[in-house]
Amino acid sequence: MKEALIDWFVVNLGGKVSKEFIVFLISMVPILELRGGLLAAGPAILDVAKWQAIPICIIGNLIPIPFILLLITKIFDWMKGTKKLRPMVEKLEAKAMSKSGRIEKYEFWGLVLFVGIPLPGTGAWTGSLIAALLGIRFRKAFPAIVLGVLIAAFIMTILSYTVIGGILG
Predict the structure, then answer these.
(1) How far apart are the first and last CA of the chain?
(2) What secondary structure letter does DSSP report for 159?
(3) How many domains, the chain?
(4) Which residue from 57, 66, 103, 107 could staple onto 34, CB 3.0 to 4.6 Å apart?
(5) Does residue 72 share a domain with residue 55?
(6) Could you say which DSSP state residue 14 is in?
(7) What pTM was computed for the model?
(8) Do 91 and 121 lie in a common domain?
(9) Cβ 72 vs Cβ 78: under 8 Å
């Protein structure tokens, strides 16, 4: 699914906007985030220089996070007040909370690892949602998410530019 979304951005925006802007947009999108941005930026797809791609992906991934941490519970409460949106919100909350065990137990470091280790269903968006639903304060959650994004950037840079780039690039 991630590959199809990355391909959609590359095909539909390629030639219309810069490669760097495509990478920035991919990094902001839930599910794809920094991981998808660095994969797209790597030599196998868009071939954006590593020194450009890393800060672009980090900034793109972090831009939505304060809004999620500060506003998502209010937005969800409003959405739950509507008949049509309530089931969707409850499903999103249940899915996020099903992954909240380590974050709830270890808070800061649990959130860092949840965001930083690139596994399916983890990342800054989901980590922010879980932190907001658990009531973790912004001043604790945001630095943990930033640190997690930096760890994910390190891991994904190695995968995108060294491993995948070495094989396909």
Answers:
(1) 22
(2) I
(3) 2
(4) 57
(5) no
(6) B
(7) 0.90
(8) yes
(9) no
Burial class (CB in 10 A: 0-12, 13-18, 19+), 160: buried
Cα separation, 128 vs 134, in Å, equals: 10
Taking the C-alpha atoms of residue 155 and residue 132, their distance in angstroms, rounded to an integer, is 26
pLDDT at 163 over 90: no
Give the whole-angstrom CA distance, residue 103 versus residue 106: 5
The reply to whether 81 and 13 lie within a common domain is no
21 vs 159 pLDDT, higher one: 21
Query: Which alpha helices (H) appear in 14-100, and where do they start and end?
Result: 19-28, 33-41, 50-62, 65-80, 86-97
Residue 43: Cβ within 10 Å count? 18
Structural domain harbouring 89: 65-152
